[in-house]
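Margin note from the TA: students keep mixing up input and output lines. Inputs are the sequences; the output is the structure of the whole complex. Example:
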Amino acid sequence: MTDPDRIWTEAAGRLKTEIGDGPFSSYIAPSAVRLDASGNLILVTPTAYARDWVRKNALRRMNELWLGLDGLSRRLDVRCRAEVGSPAPATAFPAGEAPRLASVGGVTAPVPMSVQAAAMAASSFAPATDGARAVRAAGLQERLTFDSFVEGQGNAFALAIAKQVASWADGHFNPVFFCGPYGYGKTHLLNAIAWEAQRLRPDAKVVYLTAERFLSTFVRAMQDRSTAAFKESLRSADMLLLDDVQFVGGKTSTQEELLSTLTALIEDGKRIVLSADRAPTALTDVEPRLRSHLSAGLTCPVEAADRNLKIAVAQSRLNALARLGVVSGEARTDVLEHLVDRTPGSMRELEGAVNTLAAVAGARLSTLGVDEAQSLLGVALRGGPERRITVDEIQKTVADHFNLKQADLLSERRTRAIARPRQIAMYLCKQHTTRSYPDIGRRFGGRDHTTVLHGVRKIEELMPKEEQIARDVEALTRKLRG
Ligand SMILES: Nc1ncnc2c1ncn2[C@@H]1O[C@H](COP(=O)(O)OP(=O)(O)OP(=O)(O)O)[C@@H](O)[C@H]1O
């Protein structure tokens, strides 16, 4: 199947059943797929917020679905309307309908297509055809390569190891386990390894997936009684890259499956690369046997970036945006320094700030001075250079805003009047601190990381739909930034 209209209809239908009506109608339905001048497929979202949501929560899966159906192995990227400079799709689509496929220049196919709810025949675990090879790389983001990874203090060792692994060199540790705080490049390194390893050995089976995807695919395979195909698809990998392993914590049968997959692959001399937000020995809700397998190779820290590295990453991101035509020229060094100093948090927050700068400055980037950058960016940049927002501060501010006690947020009580503010507080913790999900859970009365994940997603899902929640989050963000 190569007709993009039909592929999109099928892929969107499947995605809707997987992510649910709410997120689908908020983020996917008002978007449109376009072909750019080079024939690349781009999902154009109405806002940068929707773009970031899609990129974080749905793009990998959309690519898996797309590539499973598209004989041409094209990949789908996501941009917001401001980046592609296209007019708005004429109407937002109702929840039951798929967004349209459009060509560049804003000429859209006129007729909305109804979504086919029928499950697709293709799956991520199809036999090894050309299409399937592309599918194996489907979770990967094209921009996350070694070329776009900036080396600095804190990641140089990890980068060197990553390059060794990607070269398929003999005699190295197996598994290699990258660990470090949220948002400092682990996923980037795993993607880069996968791209490079596949480039060097095009016939090898390189499989990248997140632990969340491992978990959900395994659970689905159990329900469909197709675990044999699932096992086979992973065990025939020459290199398996599993991102965010902390997410298997507490899931006994998934851990057992992962353990037997790892054991089988290691016995066969296949390469394993893993990542998590902490060292394997600190994964306390992972079964001891699995934990010891995870720690058996090389544990390689990816540390938080220092100021110089952040400036270099901001520069490199702006260069990439300039190549895409989003900005022209280079930002002044003092503007970049200002941006970095006013953006505490991980590289992810920094990327958000750089994107905001690019969007507001556009063609005027190179002439922009610090004062003008500051006034243009306004509240998008945070308080002072030393300002760090803490979980405690967030809890107090949220409790105060909703006339609750901080203890209510930490309590077991589940009434809506407490549960929703608690979820907002969790969301703000993820946005404004570098704490991991388990860490945040511990600070909210010892809750499980899946509860935090659910809370954060709930707020992300509600914000575009419920104005009051968006207003609360905005007001709280302003209070926290002082
Ligand atoms: N050294 C770097 N050079 C270029 N970009 C970087 C670097 N480090 C991080 N980034 C960028 O910052 C963003 C966050 O990085 P990434 O997603 O790899 O973090 P992570 O450590 O996997 O986080 P998580 O624990 O949430 O999965 C990505 O867009 C990534 O490209």
